[in-house]
Design goal:
three-stranded mixed β-sheet; about 65% helix; mainly alpha; 4 helices
């Protein structure tokens, strides 16, 4: 599994799968679906992202983001939309 994540600014930090799950749950907070469904989606998409890192020593935040949004588009598009809307406010 990847041990480090390279951020947009080039800094590196330890890979922490829980950060992926937290980001998904934050995006899901504004979506009108059952809490249980939000947790299922967060667990499923986090697991898939972690599996993607199994063959890498290092990964970028943009690779993780791309994987998560792609999976959210398939599994629960409303959460994906919420994530993208939040991204727009940060830019």
């Amino acid at each position: 599994m990847a041990k480090e994540v390279t951020k947009k600014d080039g800094t590196k930090e330890a890979f922490e799968p829980e950060k992926i799950r937290s980001s998904i749950m934050a995006a899901a907070a504004t979506v009108d679906i059952l809490e249980e469904r939000k947790k299922e989606v967060a667990d499923q998409v986090t697991k898939a992202a972690v599996q993607m890192t199994e063959v890498k020593e290092e990964i970028t935040t943009s690779e993780i983001r791309e994987k998560v949004l792609s999976d959210l588009d398939q599994v629960e598009p409303s959460i994906s939309v919420s994530w993208r809307e939040y991204d727009k406010t940060k830019q």
